[in-house]
Amino acid sequence: MPEQRRALVLISGGLDSMLAARALLEQGVRVEGVNFFTGFCVEGHTHAVRQADRARPKRNNALWVAEQLGIPLHIVDVVEEYKRIVTRPRYGYGAHMNPCLDCKVFMVGKAFEWVRSGDYDFVVTGEVIGQRPKSQRKATMPVVAEDSGAGDRLLRPLSARMLEPTLPEREAWVDRAQLFDFHGRSRQPQMALAERWGIRDYAQPAGGCCFLANRHYTQKLRDLWQHRGAREYELDDIMLLKIGRHLRPRPNYKLIVAREDGENRFLEGYRKAFPHIRPLSHGGPLTLVDGEPGDDDLEFAARVSARFGQGRDAERVEMEIHPGHGRSPLRASVVPLAPDDVPRDWYV
Amino acid sequence: MNPPTDTHELDATGLLCPLPVIRTGERVRTLAPGAVLVVHASDPGAAHDIPAWCRVHGHEVLECETRTDDRVIVRLRVGNAR
């Protein structure tokens, strides 16, 4: 009886990687999944925070796919290692700050480390030739294989018959004839295959699955780097970019203003790390102050913050200002800024 | 009389998913089969994701509770496969 081979499949939670894994399972390969957490995944975070989204299902799509397929899924924290991909991508960015080709090389390379250690025989992705303009073209497929180190131990079952046979195909660990020749941007072949295999429920992320492909998000990331004078970030930085209104009234500080109760609760967890402002006389947002504000700046920030609370039309609003750096909180009675006094270019 | 259960605690409050799942997995890898891990989380998604992760890895979910303050508590027994 031939030895059962072991494949490690990059599972994103979308349909393509689900089908790629299923294609291997159909051939009797032992399959496990891996999902890399970079900190920029759209899924989950803001939905978990915002009150309005609380009724939405909270499932993690990669885990859900693994359950449907009946395979183990390893979710791996790569936040630290991923920083060099975001800050110094060898192949540059896509439309925004999405380093898609570098990202794919990185993730296949990380998965291939597990092959090198002997736990698996080959790596599998759900890549489809021509599906993505930057990272999933016929010309970039060999780049991913070569730069990741995976070489011919990287199999793309959905486009395999349009590519050179890989080691798993040549060694008959998998039957190439049962793999596919999908290509192009159309999703019809994948949807037809899903139908054939009885897969009717799958995630269809609208607007992509990575915040680095989001224009509004990447504006905030660029602003962060510009004002810190370095292309660096910590996980908390990139989490906070997903939450609240971000306004920069002055170059030396930025305000993060909660938009609703869920964001208020989330920002509460960060208040000890930042100077912050909260209303006392009216309902309103918690506001974090990121940067090096002076006392005048904090009082002005309190006026900006009051503009977003229930006292926005009041003559004065009582605010509590926490200057940070071990100093005691101050009370201030401020005049809320008028809407016209908040220029659009303050919004990051 | 049953021997005392080897019980451990993990504080994953303040973390957004999938970090509570990742930290749970990292902790489980250090524990012996049969040990019990109690995970405390504040992301409501943890009430779905940690049990799902347990199911695909063969760990037993003993209890999963979302409290009125949105705190999630998952008690799991470590299985053989990790």
Q: Would you spell out the secondary-structure blueprint of this structure?
A:
The complex is a heterodimer of chains A (348) and B (82).
Chain A: E1 6-10, H1 15-26, E2 30-37, H2 45-49, H3 61-69, E3 73-77, H4 79-87, H5 100-116, E4 122-124, H6 141-148, E5 154-155, H7 167-170, H8 188-196, H9 215-228, H10 235-240, E6 245-250, E7 253-257, H11 261-268, E8 276-279, E9 287-291, H12 295-307, E10 317-322, E11 330-334
Parallel strand pairs in A: 1-2, 1-4, 2-3, 4-5
Antiparallel strand pairs in A: 6-7, 7-9, 8-9, 8-10, 10-11
Helix pairs in contact in A: 5-6
Chain B: E1 7-12, H1 19-28, E2 36-41, H2 46-57, E3 60-66, E4 72-77
Parallel strand pairs in B: 1-2
Antiparallel strand pairs in B: 2-4, 3-4
Can you walk me through this structure?
The complex is a heterodimer of chains A (348) and B (82). With 348 residues, chain A is α/β, with parallel strands linked by helices. Chain A has 2 domains: 6-211, 3-Layer(aba) Sandwich (Rossmann fold); 243-346, no CATH class. Chain A contains 12 helices and 11 strands. Chain A has helices at residues 15-26, 45-49, 61-69, 79-87, 100-116, 141-148, 167-170, 188-196, 215-228, 235-240, 261-268, 295-307, and strands at 6-10, 30-37, 73-77, 122-124, 154-155, 245-250, 253-257, 276-279, 287-291, 317-322, 330-334. In chain A, strand 6 and strand 7 form a beta hairpin. In chain A, helix 5 (100-116) packs across helix 6 (141-148). The radius of gyration of chain A is 24 Å and the shape is elongated. Helices cover 27% and strands 30% of the residues of chain B. Chain B has a 4-stranded mixed sheet with strand order 1-2-4-3, covered by helices on one side. Chain B has 2 helices and 4 strands. Chain B is an alpha+beta fold. In chain B, strand 1, helix 1 and strand 2 form a beta-alpha-beta unit. Chain B has helices at 19-28, 46-57, and strands at 7-12, 36-41, 60-66, 72-77. Chain B has one domain (16-77): 2-Layer Sandwich (Translation Initiation Factor IF3). Chain A binds chain B through residues 35, 37, 41, 44-45, 47-49, 54, 57-60, 63-64, 66-67, 70-77, 239, 269, and chain B through 14, 16-19, 21-22, 25, 43-45, 47-49, 52-53, 55-58, 81.
